[in-house]
Give the backbone structure.
Amino acid sequence: MKTSILRTESITKVYHTGAVDVHALRGIDLSLFEGEVVVLLGASGSGKSTLLNILGGLDRPSEGRVFFRDEDLTRLSDSALTEFRRDHVGFVFQFYNLVPSLTARENVALVTEIAKIPMSPEEALDRVGLADRMSHFPAELSGGEQQRVAIARAIAKRPDILLCDEPTGALDSKTGTTVLEALIEVNRSLGTATALITHNAAIRRIAHRVIYMTDGRISHIEENAERVAPSEVSW
Amino acid sequence: MRALDLKLLRDMRHIWAQSLAIALVLACGIMVMTLASGTQRSLTETRAAYYERHRFADVFASLTRAPKQVLDEIARIDGVTRVEGRVVFTALLDLENMREPASARVISLPASGGAILNLPLIRHGRLPEALHQNEVAISEPFADANRLRPGDTFRAILNGRKRELVVTGIVLSPEYIYTIGAGALMPDDRHFGLIWMRETASAPVKELEGAFNDLTLSLSRDANEAAVIDAVDRILAPYGGTGAYGRDRQPSNVFIDGELKQLGALATVQPPIFLVVSAFLVNMVLSRLVALDRAQIGLFKAVGYTTRTIALHYLKMTAGIGILGVLIGWGFGWWLGHEMTEMYTDFFRFPWLLYRPGPWQLVISGILGIAAVILGALRAVRASVRLAPAVAMSPPVPPVFQRGWADSLGEMLSLRQTTMMIVRSIIRWPGRAAVTLFGVSGSVAVLVVSFFTFDAIDLIMAELFEHTNRQDATLTLSGNLNDRAVIDAGNLPGVLRAEGIYAIPIRLVNGTQTRLVTLQARAPGAMLTQILDTEGRAITPSTAGVVLPEELARRLGVAPGDSLRIELLSPPRETWQVPVASVIRQSLGQDAYFDRDTLFHRLRQTPQVNMIHLAIDPNRLTDLQAKVQETPAIAGFTLWEDVRNEFVATLSESLITMSVIFATLGMLITVGVVYNAARIQLAERAHELASLRVLGFRRSEVGYVLVVEQMLLTVFAIPVGWLAGYGFALLMAQGFSTDVVTIPVVVTQRTFALAALIVLGSALGAVLFVMRRLDRVDIVSALKQKE
Ligand SMILES: Nc1ncnc2c1ncn2[C@@H]1O[C@H](COP(=O)(O)OP(=O)(O)O)[C@@H](O)[C@H]1O
Ligand SMILES: [Mg+2]
């Protein structure tokens, strides 16, 4: 029996912007299981990022509840939510969001310094194949390398959950592949539950499960009987 | 080092020039505070130590003549610890190589031993010996100015006869830290000195053997000064006492008090401007930084940094700027304070200097400095704290520009699009425009206040030497003489016109407020000296009552029409209740005026004079001076040309130094503000400006957008700064006015214009300096940047 690490109960999210209300999420029931890789697929504006942000405790749902193991995240205070992110969640974003004034190693150290049981920044960078780029500043790294630093930064705290919002969105297919390989490798060796947003359908084949979203709802979920390695995905 | 701190250091290196500019503005404020309070404290301590070690007296009185037995009676007054009766008088001197007469105050020393109070401090040689009647010690400033050394001789006119005196010692006295001759406005060390003579030699000159005409005494710690003064006045009244007074009326002490008060004003009026401007600058720079760091702040929050840590991160950066500014300010303040204390020590003739800027003053200025920048940072830091992580990481929404009145106006005037960009930018970021406006106007205000000092001095000089005192010379008579003396003076060689003055010491009393001043009565139809009303028109004192300087009336708490008590401190020693007839303008000195006939009618005397103003033929000055020297009835001779030169020399040195310092500080503010504003603008609009370049605009056309926005704000700031400057001038005038000097509030167009020009120049310089960076903006990469 698979145990769920994150679970949502009919969550909705409404943005009130001026005259119109935008219903970004219209009732989502979803579980993320220990150790699995999930790909979120859907058109732009379908609510993927909103869902991911709520799962990671960056945002709160308008209605519904989110559970981390047995803990109700929606009832936590802001500072408790900060603690939750600090201890359990790693984020990777489309635009890397590295601190430009810090080197690769220092960007990772930013997280290891406040984590409970971190790995060393060197080890984290080694895992994403950047052991030799440690003292480079973001501006001296290619896009793929920057994204791998971001992954190293996300996994260095040994998170329970890794949330990636279009990590390959800004990359060409070859560099995208190296980034995905890094993610899959981390999932395999550390068992980190990973949710990955993309609007590139080909990538879905690397996941255990694929969640399709349309218009703020989950339209269907499919399980991959057979996963392929990122290097075999072409796009 | 922690990664967050590393980011801090590197970010600071990136904005070092801007941080330095802010730190310098802050440093200016801290420097002025440190300098003024350090000098003030050092002078206070030096003076206290000098007074203590040399037994500066607590109460002073002069009288006509009293037998020495009276001293015992005075010593018995409750609270009196030491009493000294001296013989003090003024004598004319005949110095080699000096045609004009000089004068000296002759002070007696006891027949044997040293003085009891106000001990002279021997710098060279020794005190005169009682056996040698012609031995004297002289004051150091006078000795320096006339190149007299122990062993040298000079001649004095004592009791109508020329006597040769031998200098045995050069001394300083706590009683004369600031020495000023009778009727003079400024120290004149060449023409006025102090002579210490044994009583056995000096008393016979005034026929005061076994008697005294000057009293000083010291008090115990718990003595009641007012009660002692009353008792002394009662005892001395039969002996022609002219009113005892405490240290608060002792001329040398009062003058130093005034100077200390001015240093206090310096420490409080200007520094706040600098502190507030640096707070605004920090706000401007940090707001920009937080806006730039938006995505990073979101990330910090996403990965679990607490808001407190993030807020602290930006506060640390601010504190860094604050600490730098405070350290620079302390450094320069300490050094300049030392220089300034030294300058004062020389000017005031302290024997030594204790430079003791108090640690507390430093601590307080430091705390104020850091607090100012932290306060400035709070708004920006609050914005960083408020950012929600999810929002922070999505790119910022482009600023909303709305069509408004400015656009319609622009269309109406058919302004160019680049000009419209400027107008919209100012309207879109009113906060930043306001900071620039405020900062630059602060700079204008500082300059206005600095140059205002010159305006005030000019006005005082014009009033003093052109409007009120138009005489060439003034004779001080050795006693009261019949009116005929004026006619005699008119017959002296080279004298074109002579006008007599009768001046007596009085005490003005209104409730608890009392002032010792001189009451003057001028000859009818006097032309050489004039009295000006508050509008600057010459008036004659009315027969209705006493005429007072505006400031004196204010301090006594009386207005025209009010009744005032006048106590005559010379015979007939009466007390009158007199209405205040009117108030007049008098910046320097405090004299009350009375109509002559009314005065002598009240005194039941025929008119007398004790001072004579002269208009003279400059070609016959030598003859006049020679004649004056051999006339025993004349105790002093003042040439107004000398007074004026002395006045200018004394003021210009210290004033010019101060004004140069403040003008530099004022410029620094403008440079700091405009440089920061332009840098931020350039960074924020790099994309926009690069786009203009892509579209084919020339560099100069792009620069136009940058330069004109800053200059436009500068121009708007000038009138605001003028207004603020006028307000600060008002505060300054109040802070610098003392019992003896009233600073008039006049700000000339020259000052306004100069302040504006300097600010415009500095602003243009700063923005052009920033414009050079346009060369370095790579068009293509600027366009690629997502921000
Ligand atoms: N902060 C916000 N304010 C208002 N509307 C928002 C905000 N964030 C997202 N939305 C809206 O919510 C919907 C879902 O957005 P998002 O979750 O970003 O979609 P996706 O990541 O699938 O492209 C969109 O219509 C978007 O415009
Ligand atoms: Mg998205």
